[in-house]
């Protein structure tokens, strides 16, 4: 697969760059909206969390399924797989990952950040990430194909660029959240629950509205003032008590589709 894919809106006011399926740039009217890899904060610019969200350390890295117990590290094994390109046009691209049930995958967090060397999952799945850059927005669609009844959690983890002055706010419904408030959330992130829409409001530059289908919740996370992760999630995992209880999991319908639309304004 070509490491870099560059898409352009039909009116040429926006472009998107993807590196091995990772969203590394979204330029709108020459303004960069995505956190740049190598800058302080986070070493990535986006990733997907599947089939779990959050840490499994509290459960000794074990996740219980109807087919038994399997090792999973933080945010699941999907990130350990490589994307291939299914098709591409000027303003669209479809990436795909496939996993064969029970395949042991090397955990990239081992040994520096995790004692678990291999992770696995007892279900086949195909995971598609479709990118469509329109004149007004960036649409990202996730399609998960697997057997009916598979438990799963899904989260999308993009990082957006901030100006470093901590004067941006996040709004959702009647809630207004500052960057310092989000930072106090630490590694468990700041939950914004039971909503499908959220906005990043800036003093300078383009604001962002994020609308979703299928997720219904968000987490906000940043270790720095120059970036912010606004993460659509199916469930907030840091609920106290037993981690990753079965109530946090969706149950597959065979094919499940989730959407994220990012609109600069």
TrEMBL record:
**UniProt keyword annotations, A-Z:** Calcium
InterPro entries for the chain: Aldose_1/G6P_1-epimerase (IPR008183), Gal_mutarotase_sf_dom (IPR011013), GH-type_carb-bd (IPR014718)
Q: Does the keyword Nucleus apply?
A: no
Tell me the Pfam families matching this sequence: Aldose_epim (PF01263)
Q: Which cofactor does it need?
A: Ca(2+)
Instruction: Specify the superkingdom.
Output: Bacteria
Coiled-coil intervals, chain numbering:
none
Record's subunit section = Monomer.
Q: What is this protein called?
A: Aldose 1-epimerase
